[in-house]
C-alpha cells in the first residue's frame, strides 16, 4: 500500500490553513476596529489642511494657515464628540429617537446652523477677547491665536478621553485669554468682554434649568395631573410646538437671513409669531389623529410628545451649530484674516471654507465619537422620559438662541446639563411637596427610611459635583496651557 498522501489529506491540510487565515483575519478586524474612527478623523484633518493649502497656495505664510486649519478641524471633531452629545442625549435617553436618527438630525442641523447663522459669535470669539491695540504686530497675534487653538483642542481631547464633561467654549475662551496674557500681558485682555462672557457662563445653566423646570411644571399641572390627560395633551402639545417653531423662525429671520435681507428685531418677532401660530394650527389635527385610541394614562402621553421632542432636538442642533462653530473656527478665521491682510484691526471676514471645516468637523466628531457620551447624558444624570427630555431640549434651544442672538459664546454643555439638572431637581422638589400636602394617609415614600430616600434621589449628586468641578478648572487649565504653547511657538520661530 502506497504511503503517498491522498487528495483527502491535501484538503484537510488546506482547510486547516484556511481556518488559520480566517482566525487571523477575524483577529485583525477586532484589533483594527477601534482604529477606524481615529483613522477617519485623521483623514478629515488632513483634508482640511490640504484645502487650506489649496486656497492659500500663493500666500507667503500659507503653512501657518494650513497648521491652523488642521487644529481647527481637530477642535471641531472634539466639539462634535462632546457638546453635541450633550444636546442629543435627552432625546435618545427618553427613547424618542434612535441613536442613528439622533446622529442624522444633529449632523444636518448642526451644519445648517453653522453655515447659515454662525457669523456673529465667530467675530466675538476671534477678536473681542484680545484688545488689538495691545498686540505688537500681526505675527504675534497669529501665534497667540494658534496657541489658543492648539491648547483648547488638546484640553478638550484630554478631558473627553478621561470622561470629564468640560465646556469647549470655556476651553477656547480660556485659551485666547491665556495666549493674550502671554503675548502682551494682562492689559491685552478685554476684561469687560470677558466679564460679560463669564457672567453668561453662570447665567446660562441657571436659566436653562429654570426654563426646563417651568415647562415641566406647566406640563404636570396642565396635562399629567388632569382627569382627561389625552384631551389636555391635544390642547397643549400643539401650543408647545408653536412656541418652538415661533422661536426658531424669529431667530432664523434675524440671524440667518441677514446675508440676503436686513430684518430688524420687531419684524423678526412678527415673523416668529406668524410661524408659531401657523405651526400651532397645523399641529392640532396631527396630534388629534395621533391621540385616537390612546388610553388615559401617562404612558400614552409619551407617544404624543414624540413630535415636539424631535422638533426641539433639531432646533437645538441648529442653534448649537450657530453658536459653537465659533469655538472651532473663530481663532482660525482670525489667523486667516491676519495672514491675508497683514492686520487684525478690521472686522474679521469669515471665508466659506473656514465655516465648512467647522460645520463638517462637528458632524464627523458626533458620528465617530458621540454615541457613548449621548448614552451617558441621556440616562446617567437623571431618568428622562419624552416629556422631561422635551423640556430640557426646548429650554436649551431657547437659551442658546438668546445667547447667540446677543453674540455671547455660552456653553451648550452648561445649558443642556443645567436643563437636565433643572428637571431632576424640580421633580425632587415636587415629590416632597406632594408628600407634605397629601392628606389621605401616609404616602409610601414617607415609610421609607431616610437613608434609602437619599439613595433614591432623582438626581445623582456625584455627577453634579464632578461637572461643577470640571467647569471650574477648564478656564485656568486652558489659559495656562495656551500661555505655555505660545512661549514654545515663539521660541521655535525666533
Automatic annotation (TrEMBL):
Membrane as a keyword?
Answer: yes
Q: Which residues form the signal peptide?
A: none
Mainly resides where? Answer: membrane
Locations listed in the record? Membrane
Keywords from the named record: Membrane, Phosphate transport, Transmembrane, Transmembrane helix, Transport
Give the stretches traversing the membrane: 35-56, 63-81, 140-160, 197-216, 236-254, 260-282, 303-322, 350-369, 389-406, 412-429, 464-489
Q: Which GO terms describe its biological process?
A: phosphate ion transmembrane transport
What would you give as a GO molecular function for this chain, any one? phosphate transmembrane transporter activity
> What membrane topology does the UniProt entry give?
Multi-pass membrane protein
GO cellular component terms, semicolon-separated: membrane
Q: Which family does it belong to?
A: Belongs to the inorganic phosphate transporter (PiT) (TC 2.A.20) family.
Name of the protein in question: Phosphate transporter
Its source organism is Marimonas arenosa
**Which lineage ranks, top first, belong to the organism behind this chain?**
Bacteria, Pseudomonadati, Pseudomonadota, Alphaproteobacteria, Rhodobacterales
